[in-house]
Design brief:
By secondary structure, the protein is α+β, with helices and mostly antiparallel strands. Helices cover about 30% and strands about 20% of the residues. It contains eight helices and 14 strands. The protein starts with 17 loop residues before the first strand and ends in an 11-residue tail after the last helix.
Length: about 325
């Protein structure tokens, strides 16, 4: 979100390549949406990670499309996220139960301080929820990503546990093949479902300006979640279920979209800015002429209302420049 005229130079990476590093491509299931019968592949070849080097300037969804066509698993759930590969490794983008850190093997950069090319393993990248080593205040801007190596798989590894994704994929799969057998799924099938869901819920960036999900989903202690859940049940009835995701460390992630909608913001306008009427996690430039102050003002009012109602502090995912 540009909050004022930018007094500086913007560099846009045009490093544009996709290359399989560890051997030539194996026979694969592509976008034919059919069950692969490549019996000649050994179990070792199928289960070994396929390392793919991708230039920082490649549009991330183009990479997702390429991987699906090659029959490579790992990034299909991240389909149709706007942006490029270099930024994906900085932001640790995520959607539908998958984060890009799950498939990153190594990130290659140019160090503008030491003036040399360096690389970082996925462990060294310090990934967290929408966070990485590259976003730390003392590091920010020092490293320019040149390319990213991803570890993908030829072995089917569908991730379908997020929300109603499994049901949506099963319905689509049955329509196409007459079978609900997950063993016959392909990355392309899942990618098509993901794209359909995103198009139904999110504005097209080329039509309605936005930065995608504006806020991070808050993570709270179980005790705090139980209080929120009790209040929701008191308001909506004892059978009401608050959407949430239990984390391994005992914390609970609550969808910011649910909180924002509960506070009545869904579809609300404020000057040229608005909360998207199909997904309240998204703030849009509704008129195409919104001022930064209108976006920021709406952001602050949403944060304040969620804090007042739930005692939870929302934090923007969008970077303010």
């Amino acid at each position: 979100l540009f909050t004022d005229d930018f007094k500086g130079t913007v560099l846009h990476s045009k490093i544009d390549f996709i290359e399989i590093l560890n051997g030539s491509p194996e026979p694969h299931c592509d976008d034919r949406d059919s069950l692969c019968h490549c019996e000649e592949r050994s179990d070792v070849a199928i289960s070994s990670p396929v390392l793919v080097s991708v230039g920082a300037g490649v549009v991330f969804d183009d990479f997702c499309a390429w991987a699906a066509k090659e029959g490579l698993w790992g990034v299909e759930n991240l389909s149709y996220i706007p942006g490029e590969v270099g930024a994906s490794a900085v932001q640790n983008i995520g959607a539908y139960g998958v984060e890009v850190k799950d498939v990153i093997h190594k990130v290659y950069c140019y160090d503008t301080v030491e003036e040399e090319f360096v690389s970082f393993s996925v462990e060294e990248c310090g990934y967290g929820y929408r966070d990485s080593f590259f976003k730390r205040p003392e590091i920010k801007g020092r490293y320019v990503v040149t390319h990213v190596v991803f570890a993908l798989s030829r072995e089917p590894k569908p991730v379908l546990e997020y929300g109603h994704l499994k049901e949506a994929v099963a319905d689509c799969h049955f329509e196409r093949s007459g079978s609900g057998d997950e063993k016959s799924l392909t990355p392309t099938m899942i990618r098509k479902v993901i794209i359909r869901i995103r198009k139904e819920k999110l504005p097209e960036p080329s039509v309605k300006g936005s930065a995608g999900s504006f806020f991070k989903n808050p993570v709270v202690p179980m005790e705090q979640f139980l209080k929120i859940e009790a209040a929701a049940k008191a308001e909506h009835g004892s059978d009401y279920k608050v959407p949430h995701y239990d984390l391994p460390d005992g914390m609970v992630k609550i969808p910011a979209a649910w909180m924002i909608e509960q506070c009545g913001w869904k579809g609300k306008r404020s000057g040229g800015a608005a909360v998207w009427d199909k997904q309240p996690l998204v703030i849009v430039n509704h008129t195409g002429e919104a001022y930064p102050e209108e976006i920021i003002g709406l952001e602050k009012r949403i944060i304040a209302s969620v804090r007042t109602r739930f005692g939870v502090e929302l934090h923007p995912e969008v970077e303010h420049v």
